[in-house]
């Protein structure tokens, strides 16, 4: 039995739309920061006595689309290892559902890593990233710590993530502002597909997101918080603009989301270096230096409760327990 730990990540340049649904190939590159504190531990054991895969997530048997995705990854591992053995999978998420952070990235990165090792495969990090991608696109990035780029690629082998800066030796962190932690009505998978198929803004999104990649790489390597933050905020707003153009139109924003976006802009006008990003949900992540956390949280306390605020620091790549 092998147990692997993977951490969640937040995209600074978003993955938003698949050019190949079966292989999970995105239209554009994305860049993320892996976070500490929130992770998934997954144990995998291939067992000749099993008649089917046994999948437990947080002690509960997994069914539906989640189980289907797990089996898809296990089938690829079996193919690579030339094996027909079924597996038992035990996964524990240390990403509280109340944290408003996605656990699919950490879950499938941990599954790919534990599964490959349990099958006796000695895969490179790139190969693990490709394998994790087949569970969930954003999982390809959670193989690595720090700042990570997922290359969109054009086929299975060319679509993988790679570190830009594994050890983040400068002061950057995120303040997550929890607006609503209930299950969202439109999943990322469905939201991005709807936008690809119906939003006239989608081609403009792909063009601008791809154009953001080089400047974002440079901002990270130069440890330039202002440029990184401006690019991330603009990229997130453009991603959300595609949803307004979809048919039927939709948005992940809620009234409080807009209030926080405005507060961040106002703080910036007052000279505080802080920037917003928003994933496929209503919660806002504020990118800033940890030395400004206290000031920003104090200013936000006029519009949100302290228990809606959560600080996330840069985190590591895969570890085996
Ligand atoms: C991201 N998101 O880059 C973007 C930003 C949401 C908004 O990756 O369909 O759960 O499983 O490949 O990875 C969430 O999408 O989607 C996501 P699938 P996934 O982080």
Automatic annotation (TrEMBL):
<dbReference type="InterPro" id="IPR020568">
    <property type="entry name" value="Ribosomal_Su5_D2-typ_SF"/>
</dbReference>
<keyword id="KW-0444">Lipid biosynthesis</keyword>
<feature type="domain" description="Diphosphomevalonate decarboxylase-like N-terminal">
    <location>
        <begin position="6"/>
        <end position="161"/>
    </location>
</feature>
<dbReference type="GO" id="GO:0005524">
    <property type="term" value="F:ATP binding"/>
</dbReference>
<protein>
    <recommendedName>
        <fullName>diphosphomevalonate decarboxylase</fullName>
        <ecNumber>4.1.1.33</ecNumber>
    </recommendedName>
</protein>
<dbReference type="InterPro" id="IPR029765">
    <property type="entry name" value="Mev_diP_decarb"/>
</dbReference>
<keyword id="KW-0443">Lipid metabolism</keyword>
<dbReference type="GO" id="GO:0005829">
    <property type="term" value="C:cytosol"/>
</dbReference>
<keyword id="KW-0456">Lyase</keyword>
<dbReference type="Pfam" id="PF18376">
    <property type="entry name" value="MDD_C"/>
</dbReference>
<comment type="similarity">
    <text>Belongs to the diphosphomevalonate decarboxylase family.</text>
</comment>
<dbReference type="InterPro" id="IPR005935">
    <property type="entry name" value="Mev_decarb"/>
</dbReference>
<dbReference type="InterPro" id="IPR036554">
    <property type="entry name" value="GHMP_kinase_C_sf"/>
</dbReference>
<dbReference type="InterPro" id="IPR041431">
    <property type="entry name" value="Mvd1_C"/>
</dbReference>
<dbReference type="Pfam" id="PF22700">
    <property type="entry name" value="MVD-like_N"/>
</dbReference>
<dbReference type="GO" id="GO:0004163">
    <property type="term" value="F:diphosphomevalonate decarboxylase activity"/>
</dbReference>
<feature type="domain" description="Mvd1 C-terminal">
    <location>
        <begin position="177"/>
        <end position="306"/>
    </location>
</feature>
<dbReference type="InterPro" id="IPR053859">
    <property type="entry name" value="MVD-like_N"/>
</dbReference>
<dbReference type="GO" id="GO:0019287">
    <property type="term" value="P:isopentenyl diphosphate biosynthetic process, mevalonate pathway"/>
</dbReference>
<keyword id="KW-0067">ATP-binding</keyword>
<keyword id="KW-0547">Nucleotide-binding</keyword>
<dbReference type="InterPro" id="IPR014721">
    <property type="entry name" value="Ribsml_uS5_D2-typ_fold_subgr"/>
</dbReference>
């Amino acid at each position: 039995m092998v147990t692997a730990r993977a951490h969640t990540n937040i995209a600074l340049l978003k993955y938003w739309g698949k050019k190949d649904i079966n292989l999970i190939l995105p239209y554009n590159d994305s860049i993320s920061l892996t976070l500490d504190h929130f992770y998934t531990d997954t144990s995998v054991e291939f067992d000749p006595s099993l008649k089917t895969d046994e999948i437990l997530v947080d002690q509960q048997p997994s069914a539906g689309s989640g189980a289907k995705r797990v089996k898809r990854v296990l089938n690829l591992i079996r193919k690579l290892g030339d094996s027909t053995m079924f597996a038992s999978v035990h996964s524990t998420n240390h990403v509280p559902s109340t944290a408003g952070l996605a656990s699919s990235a950490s879950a499938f990165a941990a599954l790919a890593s534990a599964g490959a090792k349990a099958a006796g495969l000695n895969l490179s990090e790139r190969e693990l990233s490709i394998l994790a991608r087949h569970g969930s696109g954003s999982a390809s990035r959670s193989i690595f710590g720090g700042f990570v780029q997922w290359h969109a690629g054009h086929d299975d082998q060319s679509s993988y993530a790679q570190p830009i800066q594994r050890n983040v030796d400068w002061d950057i962190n995120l303040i997550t502002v929890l607006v609503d932690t209930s299950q969202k009505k439109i999943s990322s998978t469905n939201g991005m597909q709807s936008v690809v198929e119906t939003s006239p803004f989608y081609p403009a999104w792909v063009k601008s997101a791809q154009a953001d990649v080089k400047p974002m790489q440079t901002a990270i390597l130069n440890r330039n918080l202002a440029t990184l933050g401006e690019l991330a905020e603009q990229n997130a707003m453009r991603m959300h603009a595609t949803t307004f153009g979809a048919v039927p139109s939709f948005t992940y924003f809620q009234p409080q989301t807009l209030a926080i976006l405005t507060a961040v802009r106002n703080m910036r006008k007052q000279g505080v270096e802080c920037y917003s990003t928003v994933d496929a949900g209503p919660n806002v992540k504020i990118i800033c230096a940890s030395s400004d956390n206290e000031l920003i949280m104090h200013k936000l306390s006029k519009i949100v409760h302290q228990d809606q605020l959560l600080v996330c620091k840069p985190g590591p790549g895969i570890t085996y327990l």
